Each structure stands twice: as structure tokens, then as C-alpha cells.
Task: structure prediction
Amino acid sequence: MLTNKQMQKNLKYYKSYYTGEIDGIVGPLTKTAVRKFQKEYGLTQDGIYGTKTDGKLVSVVKQCQKAAGTTADGIIGPNTISAVKRFQKKKGLTADGIIGTQTLQKMNLSAVPQPDAEVNWNKVKYFKKAEFKCDCNGKYCDGYPSRIDADLVALLEKTRAHYGKAMQITSGLRCKKRNAQLAGSSPVSKHLEGKAADVWIVGTSANNNELVHWFQTQSEVNYSYTGFGAVHVDVK
Result:
């Protein structure tokens, strides 16, 4: 989770949701900014900066950081502001460091964000939502710190049908605290966004290079690898 000051800074420099001082105090201006962001992204508009709001804000900021050519850590700081200013200057925009509508358009990112597609679990044949639940067992989150990506579920459904064998999800969603406990896990893991899963096809090698190759041939896949007792896959 971002600190209060980091959250305020992200909301100030991303579309100017927040207009107050960066003081870390969650007052009326901060709550209003959070509600505006939640409304635009299809989240519950309660003004509370929880894990789902945090995950979405970090995700959209990362996209902007990538487009601006700087480290995509989801936190707007001096380096991000400088990179955005350089990008704006290069594109003939006012170099104010604010990622507004015109800057988003030049970045080829949607100025009017669309909420992630919901998974219709009634139409999912091979998997249940609970299989993707964070395995912190309720210690750090409610099990669903982010929305499960519909493209990920569709990919796993397609893969399960292709191989015709049961597939187990050994790791799906992760909250930040649980992710940090796992050796070798990236602090920007796609598991945090609901876009990744570690899987095993029952009756095959846990380190299944053939499955990695299958995933790598699918257009929606961003990355896949093995060698740790399962096969990791994440979607774009």
C-alpha cells in the first residue's frame, strides 16, 4: 500500500484528482480525490483508500511511467515528474509534470479509463474464484486484494481445454504483504494485479517447459517461465 503522502502525490500528479497539500493527512480533500478516482475506475465510492483502490492507482501510474520512459514502480516522485516533463516538452505540451488528458492521449493511454472486465464465474467451466484467492489465509487481506483479470481466466480455461487434464493453481492473487514474504517475488509482481497465476497440470512435470512454450505462443500472454515447481504465466 502507498503511504498517505505517496497516495496524495499520485492523485495530485495523475489527472489532478487531489488539489491539497502533500501532508499525509486524510482530510476532506483527500477523501474527495479518492472518491473521484474510484468513480472513474468503477470502484466502490467510499472515499477509503483500500487495497483495490491502491492496486488500480499504482497500475495506472505504472502505465504512465512506462510511456514516459522511467522506472515503473507506481510511485510518482521527482524522477517520474521530470520524465513526464521531458515527455510533455518533446510532444509540444505544457511541461508541468501533471499527467492530464492531453498527456495521456500523447502516451496512447485512455483519457477516459475503463474498469477491468468482470469475470462471469457462472460461465467459467474449469475454475472457481476461490482457487485464485490470496494464500495469506486472511492474515493481511480478505483474499481478493485486486480484481481477477478476465483475460487470465480465459487463458487458463483455453489451456485446460487444450491439454484435457486437470490444472491446479498454486498461486493466484497476492496482497503486498504476502508477496513480500515469498522469496524471489518481484515487488511489482503481476500477482498483485490479478494478472498472473502459477499453475501445474496434474500428471505432468511441475517444471513443464512444454506448457511454457504453449503460453508463449498465446497473444494475450506477457511472460511465462518455470523452474520453481510450477509454471508462471501473466497476461498483458
User: Anything to note?
Assistant: The chain has two domains: 4-106, 121-235. Helices lie at 4-13, 28-40, 51-68, 78-90, 101-106, 150-163, 176-181, 209-216.
